[in-house]
Amino acid sequence: MTAPLPALPAKIHPLVRDFLDSRDAVEDTLVRFGSPVHLVFPQVYAENLKRMRAVLEKRIPQHRICYAHKVNQSRAFVRTAEHAGIAIDVASPQELASAIGAGFGPMRIEVTGPKGDVFLRDLIDCGATINVDNLWELRRIAELAGDRAKVPVLLRVSGFDGTPMSRFGVPIGHMDRAFDILSAHRGRIAFLGFAFHIDSGEPAERVRAIDACLNLVEQAYSHHLAPTVLNIGGGFRQVFTADADRFDGYVRSLREALLGRGESMSWANNTFGYHIEGGAVHGTPVFHKYANTIPATRMLDDLLTAPLERHGGRTVAQVAGDNLLTVWLEPGKALVDHAGVTVARVVFVKELADGTVLVNVDLSRDSVTPADQEVMVDPIVLPSAAHESAALPVEFGDGTVRPLRSAADTAPALRPAAETGPVGVYFAGHLCLERDLITNHKVWLARCPRPGDLVVFPNTAAYHMDLSAASASMHPVPAKLAVAHRAGSFQVCRDIDYEPHIPVGLPPRGTPPRGPRRPQAPRRSTGAP
Fold it and tell me: CA nearest 217: which of 206, 226, 209?
């Protein structure tokens, strides 16, 4: 029995899969809008939001979700968030304008990241909550506030024990200076509470950060300040792979190949962050996040139910609730997970001198891959209608293998051998730069793609689409389109034109927030909940 080829099957949302199954809808979309395109699915976003909201409602009713706009520039996502009644986290004047243009009022806008003087002036005029990154910002807010309404601020904290150094936030050791500024300007600044952001899948790091912030709450009370907010940030991971065992199998084969055993699996001997020493592969690869199998909702639930030793083993949610703290969070990746794909056409296929097969498509690596990461899920090839063959399979992330077409066969005798059987390929971009390899790892396909075929890059909504989209050689960035399933069919429009149409199961926009409660110092209760 022949061993299965190494593979990295992608997890695909059923709605996205149904759209890809609808070949007429896919082809019509590319005929109307050209290739390549980014496709976003706001209804998938709404499902993710509903699931995250359910965890919060179960564990801690006093909460606020702030959608991290930076994850994607899509207006459709922002409009979906506004329609659902949640808040938004913006990090630039342009994102602020986007949020306001989508209908967010200042009471539902939080502003994070480093800010210059001009931006601070605009934020004070706007009335949005400012998540302060550093002491200069805090002093400048006090100077600019004048005699108008108090400026609502959070203090972002960094420098927690056991956590890698971050360039963002006020070091925990400098917090006395922050307290002095807040105390001196209590007539100009409305201090809401503390915030942090840890981009780590390690739960213990977040728990330590929460415990440190609760200690700061106690210290704030001693300075006659009354914080009511604990902002636990974002960083909740995505699940890319549909099959953890096959992912692990691919990585094992890759490590063997790096040691010179078997067929090469990386372009130009790329080690992906591994290092080879003593006949073994060591280190953590740049693609380690793609191995995650824990959904964001479980990460959040585990965090809220984590015991705090300093508080007698009571959970994070219990201690926050006992002390009348509203928990804020800033999910981005978790809300757009599986809510976007990128589609491009194969331009040509070439074979190099050593037999390596390159599949060139009409977009760049930077349009689908963030920074120096390697996206470890397989693209999906949808053969062009002109190339359709009734028996050619396409494998989806749920493990199903099925044809997507029904046109007459092309005589196999007329095809090159590489096009009729399994083949390992690398996907290459359209920039005239050596680095423009979309996949530096080898992708095995049932057959070699041909010009005109469609290539689907899965789960690209989180940073992949917008973080570093290349426009070198005057190539335009891919068009962004919104896809919705309504009245039994798929409707595609430009992202900027999308409007929410169906309820997402969340409280209506007019639901009034719960009133504030009188804060008190965190208790170290050892009693039962």
Answer: 226
Cis status, amide bond into 36, omega within 30 of 0 = yes
d(CA 86, CA 100): 14
Reduce the DSSP state of residue 109 to 3 states and report it.
Answer: strand
Distances from the Cα of 82 to the Cα of 77, 100, 385, angstroms: 9, 10, 40
The model's pLDDT over 253-307, given as tens digits with 9 standing for 90+, comes to 999 999 999 889 999 989 999 999 999 999 999 999 999 999 999 999 999 999 9
Which pTM does this prediction carry? 0.88
DSSP 507: -
β partners of residue 229: 193, 326
Which residues have CB under 8 Å from 100's CB, separation 6+?
109, 126
- In angstroms, the CA 192 to CA 228 distance is 6
- Alpha carbons within 13 A on the beta-carbon side of 248: 5
Q: Looking at 396-400, 449-453, 469-473, which range is the least confident one?
A: 396-400
DSSP string, 400-451: -EE----PPPPPGGGS-GGGTS-EEEEEE-SSSSTT-BS-SB-EEESS---T
The span from the CA of 254 to the CA of 265, in Å, is 6
Mean of the per-residue pLDDT values for the chain?
88
**Of the candidates 305, 238, 323, the residue with the CA atom closest to the CA atom of residue 56:** 305
The share of the chain scoring above pLDDT 70, in percent, equals 87
Domain architecture of the chain: domains with CATH: 14-41+339-497 (2.40.37.10), 43-238+292-335 (3.20.20.10), 244-282 (no CATH)
Q: How far apart are CA 462 and CA 338, in angstroms?
A: 9
Q: Tokens standing for 261?
A: 């055993």
The pairing of beta strand 394-395 with beta strand 401-402? antiparallel
> Radius of gyration over alpha carbons of the chain, in Å?
25
Contacts of 395 by beta carbon, 8 Å cutoff, 6+ apart: 7, 9, 380, 401, 446
What distance in Å separates the CA atoms of residue 270 and residue 411, rounded to the nearest whole number?
Answer: 38
The closest of 200, 177, 289 to 240, measured between CA atoms, is 289
Structure token pair of residue 314: 């009571």
| 89-92, Cβ contacts within 8 angstroms, sequence gap of 24 or more | 89/131, 89/234, 89/330, 89/332, 90/128, 92/119
